[in-house]
């Protein structure tokens, strides 16, 4: 069984550790890196997984899952460059960073798989999209799918689509939280206590999501089933359209895509391994 090192123990890194353990991985087969000693001690106590330095992770792990912030990637790659070879697998969870960046900065032949997860990983309901780099094989992709299946669902996409994935599902939970927040505020405006408004909207969101997932019906079909002629819902839909909510969502997702592209380009001028 492969030794897996999670590099960066923020929310996503911790969620992956927890998911791997629940999926049957032994604590002894996992490592993690964390620059804050108090946080490292907390996670070791909670999960029984050893915290190590970056160089130790590179020496001991077969799979290195890079879960640091995109802006923190450069020093990590500087440390990894002299330590990794083709027998290691690098799995990047960093938004916007292409596999070509890793391939430029690491030794020739190091396989890289790019992943865009999202924060529902913390409750085992992530949506992750994976793409192979130049040296990644079908076996590498299958292994990454197996690992990520412990924390949600996985799809394969061409890397050219990863910036769109980042904008749509990587940032997607924030859009839903924003809408739920606005709907709770509307409930308060209409005279409901906050606790009641929260319960009504959160469960409605959970139920609507389950209907989408379980019925296989198109969202339009499900919406139309709620929208009676001259009823309350059609009046609400009219106001959403009048205020350009659909267009605003599309523009927001395009803006997120553009920022993902920028994050990748920010590292193009960095020196490569040669």
TrEMBL record:
Catalytic activity: L-proline + NAD(+) = (S)-1-pyrroline-5-carboxylate + NADH + 2 H(+); L-proline + NADP(+) = (S)-1-pyrroline-5-carboxylate + NADPH + 2 H(+)
Stated family: Belongs to the pyrroline-5-carboxylate reductase family.
PROSITE patterns: P5CR (PS00521)
NCBIfam families membership: proC
Pathway listed: Amino-acid biosynthesis; L-proline biosynthesis; L-proline from L-glutamate 5-semialdehyde: step 1/1
Pfam families tied to this protein: F420_oxidored (PF03807), P5CR_dimer (PF14748)
Keyword set includes Iron-sulfur: no
Residues covered by the Pyrroline-5-carboxylate reductase dimerisation domain: 159-263
Domain of life: Bacteria
Primary localisation category: cytoplasm
Organism lineage string: Bacteria, Bacillati, Actinomycetota, Actinomycetes, Pseudonocardiales
The protein's name: Pyrroline-5-carboxylate reductase
Alphabetically ordered keywords of this record: Amino-acid biosynthesis, Cytoplasm, NADP, Oxidoreductase, Proline biosynthesis
């Amino acid at each position: 069984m492969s030794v897996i090192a999670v590099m960066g123990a923020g929310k996503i890194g911790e969620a992956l550790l927890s998911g791997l353990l629940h999926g049957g991985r032994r604590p002894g087969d996992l490592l993690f890196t964390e620059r804050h000693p108090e946080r490292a001690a907390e996670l070791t106590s909670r999960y029984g997984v050893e915290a190590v330095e970056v160089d130790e992770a590179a020496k001991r792990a077969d799979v290195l899952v890079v879960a640091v912030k995109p802006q923190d990637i450069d020093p990590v790659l500087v440390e990894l460059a002299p330590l990794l070879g083709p027998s290691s697998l690098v799995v990047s969870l960093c938004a916007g960073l292409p596999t070509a960046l890793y391939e430029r900065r690491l030794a020739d032949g190091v396989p890289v798989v790019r992943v865009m997860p999202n924060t529902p990983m913390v409750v085992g309901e992530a949506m992750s999209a994976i793409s192979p780099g130049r040296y990644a094989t079908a076996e590498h992709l299958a292994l990454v799918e197996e690992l990520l299946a412990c924390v949600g669902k996985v799809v394969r996409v061409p890397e050219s689509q990863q910036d769109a994935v980042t904008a749509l599902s990587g940032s997607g939970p924030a859009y839903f939280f924003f809408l739920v927040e606005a709907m709770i505020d509307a409930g308060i405006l209409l005279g409901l206590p906050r606790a009641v408004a929260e319960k009504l909207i959160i469960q409605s969101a959970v139920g609507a999501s389950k209907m989408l997932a379980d019925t296989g019906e198109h969202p339009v079909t499900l919406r139309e089933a709620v929208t009676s002629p001259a009823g309350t819902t059609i009046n609400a839909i009219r106001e959403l359209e009048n205020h350009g909510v659909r267009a605003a969502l599309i523009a927001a997702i395009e803006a997120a895509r553009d920022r993902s592209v920028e994050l990748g380009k920010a590292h193009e001028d960095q020196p490569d391994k040669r």
